[in-house]
């Protein structure tokens, strides 16, 4: 049986869930997981439904079956075959902890994605990437060549058919034009000290202030630097007895975990943009299972 995912957003009103359930049941589908949220402030309704097609109904028939309800309720909706892996481009500079973590999760199947390319403005991780049989592109970025460099990056995205760009500690600010072109399709990771600790050595600044929590935030990239809709966050406790170097090491672990969780949510269609915020539904049963160990 083919497993599908349906995502829906529309103005909030009664009867939406009933219409969706009826349309799926009429096509021989069985809902195995469902999440919904009604935002009373914006009047928007969000829903994600995971279901199996017990009678072999295909995407075209599913689209046709939901079309009348979609028109009646003003739905933005999409069906996805859950067996299809999202194509992803990873971008990295000289900090490799997030890249290495993502490569491991990808290798064991914990992140069911297709990494179609890794782009960097340095050569540090070329060997690591090539050893995984993934195309590596070194694209240097300077003030003078930034438009040309971004054009080359977008060319890789288009040629590979990538649906998502992951900034795995890519230390370059993307232009407004690129952010707008890839809106909702670029995920970034950074320490959670912003805006308290901006600039160089944020962990050193945190150490000097005696903070008790350090953390990381993963968000969609927008033209407003580090102000995009937040997908995932986490923290870890630190004490007065730890050094700035301890903060950095602990921070790397949190960054890697938070970025991986944000990507996991995105590729499973669990994240919905809601103005400057996001709606992030819980993971479906079994979606964290790895294909293999080690």
UniProtKB/TrEMBL annotation:
Enzymatic reactions: (6R)-10-formyltetrahydrofolate + H2O = (6S)-5,6,7,8-tetrahydrofolate + formate + H(+)
SUPFAM superfamilies for this protein: ACT-like (SSF55021), Formyltransferase (SSF53328)
PROSITE patterns in UniProt: ACT
Active site per the UniProt annotation: 226
GO terms for biological process, alphabetical: 'de novo' IMP biosynthetic process; one-carbon metabolic process
Residues in ACT domain copies: 5-91
Swiss-Prot/TrEMBL keywords: Hydrolase, One-carbon metabolism, Plasmid, Purine biosynthesis
Record's function text: Catalyzes the hydrolysis of 10-formyltetrahydrofolate (formyl-FH4) to formate and tetrahydrofolate (FH4).
Protein name: Formyltetrahydrofolate deformylase
Species whose genome carries this gene: Paracoccus yeei
């Amino acid at each position: 049986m083919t497993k599908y995912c349906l995502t829906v957003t529309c103005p909030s009103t009664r009867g939406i869930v009933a219409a969706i359930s009826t349309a799926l049941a009429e096509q021989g589908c069985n809902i195995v997981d469902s999440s919904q949220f009604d935002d009373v402030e914006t009047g928007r309704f969000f829903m994600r439904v995971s279901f199996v097609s017990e009678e072999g109904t295909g995407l075209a028939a599913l689209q046709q079956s939901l079309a009348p309800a979609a028109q009646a309720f003003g739905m933005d909706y999409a069906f996805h075959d859950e067996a299809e892996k999202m194509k992803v481009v990873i971008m990295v500079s000289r900090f490799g902890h997030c890249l290495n973590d993502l490569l491991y999760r990808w290798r064991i199947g914990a992140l069911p994605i297709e990494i179609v390319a890794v782009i960097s403005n340095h050569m540090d991780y070329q060997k690591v990437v090539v050893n995984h049989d993934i195309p590596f592109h070194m694209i240097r970025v300077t003030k003078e060549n930034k438009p040309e460099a971004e054009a080359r990056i977008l060319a890789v995205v288009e040629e590979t058919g990538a649906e998502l760009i992951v900034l795995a500690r890519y230390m370059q600010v993307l232009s407004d034009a690129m952010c707008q072109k890839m809106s909702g399709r670029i995920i970034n990771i950074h320490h959670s000290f912003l805006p308290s600790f901006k600039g160089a050595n944020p962990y050193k600044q945190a150490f000097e202030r005696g903070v008790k929590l350090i953390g990381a935030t993963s968000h969609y990239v927008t033209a407003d630097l580090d102000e995009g809709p937040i997908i995932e966050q986490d923290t870890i406790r630190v004490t007065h007895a730890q050094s700035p170097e301890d903060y950095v090491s602990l921070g790397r672990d949190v960054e890697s975990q938070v970025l991986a969780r944000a990507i996991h949510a995105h590729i499973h269609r669990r994240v919905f943009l809601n103005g400057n915020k996001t709606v992030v539904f819980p993971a479906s049963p079994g979606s964290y299972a790895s294909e293999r160990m080690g």
